[in-house]
Amino acid sequence: MADLDEIVDPLLTNQAGQLRSLFDRAQPFRHLCIDGFLTPAAAAQALADFPSFKAENAVNEFGVVGGKAVETKMARVSPFYKDIYDCFCSQPFLDLMSAVTGIPDLLPDPALFGGGTHENRDGQELDPHVDFNRMEDLSAYRRLNLLIYLNPGWRPEWGGNIELHSDPRHPETNKVSSFEPIFNRAVIFETSEISWHGFPKIRLPENKKHLSRKSISIYLYTKTRPEEEIAAPHATFYVQRPMPAFLVPGYPLTASDVTELKEGLTRRDSWIEHYQNKELDLTNQVVSGRKFLEEVLENLRAPITGYGVQDGKLTGMYHDRWVGTKVGLTIQPKRAVTRVAVHGWVPDEMPLGGKITLRAGDQTEVRDLAPGSFMLSVAIPGDNEAAIRVEVEATQSVMPEGAGGRTLVFVLQEIELGHGD
Prior knowledge:
This protein is of the alpha+beta class and 421 residues long. It folds into three domains: 4-242, Sandwich (Jelly Rolls); 251-299; 304-418, Jelly Rolls (Sandwich). 22% of the residues lie in helices and 30% in strands. It is elongated and about 100 Å long.
């Protein structure tokens, strides 16, 4: 594996304190722009070995091949890219990134989910967005993006600048920091719920259409983050661009202006449809899950011992035998029943009181409800094999932590049938 100073300019280590100060003061959120991030030799080799554009790596959010190719298997690109991959996963590199940003205990993503090499062709753009905020495979929070650009001779008029936004949802007050994607420039920024970023459309001249916007993207994580920064896990959120700045009252539209407006509206409509389809998919998952749960509950069987079987549906008991305030079922004896006993258990940490009642046929027993094992028992008069309705009802319940929002009373261990033996 190559040493850190063979890949990353050694001056960065010496300047870590100064860079940290710049990072902390940057607006609209903490970031750095560093020219000459890689050593000259490493930058040249990264460009020389940059992978070719492959259609299978260019499938976009809508499932079609677009103008952006992502190679996440960066270590397989070439021996040199294996060195880059190993370097960016190494502890010395992570320590350097912590020193520069002040974010401790950074972790790499060995799978480079969403990262690796990125190639964007002419006409490609990236709407302002905040990234997905949690990597469940790592059980970690996304904290830092490192973007290294590999575009020698890039011109400002070609577009494609990386833009950091304060709030693209409100374009009238949105503040933007913009950086050209020039060769061996790195942009590092903290990822959070306000780290909006993207790039405007790439517009290459006719004699440069063979070029593309090339970069290496590395995302770093931590196991924890400040409590006030934690949000519910989510995927990437996009905001479509506002109306072009040239569009003011009295402006005479050209044919190219109309084309640009149509493209913007089409893209916006596509994202609306995309999110609507995601809502439909989620609704279908909820409905399917509810049907599955209903089927499971419909087929639950009570833990009956003795000569009798459950007749029909059991109500009030969950799949794990936890019971809410009331559980009921009908038992069809196979032999005459003289006694029904219900055995249950209340954990010590359940602060329950009140009463619990067993009803079996016309017979009832009531007792105090308290933590621990219990048994309720009633005698069944007569000597017949008629169906018996059995119900247990409590006057109190609790919602324990980790119970999935269920209100619970006890675990049903056994319904015991006695037959006078």
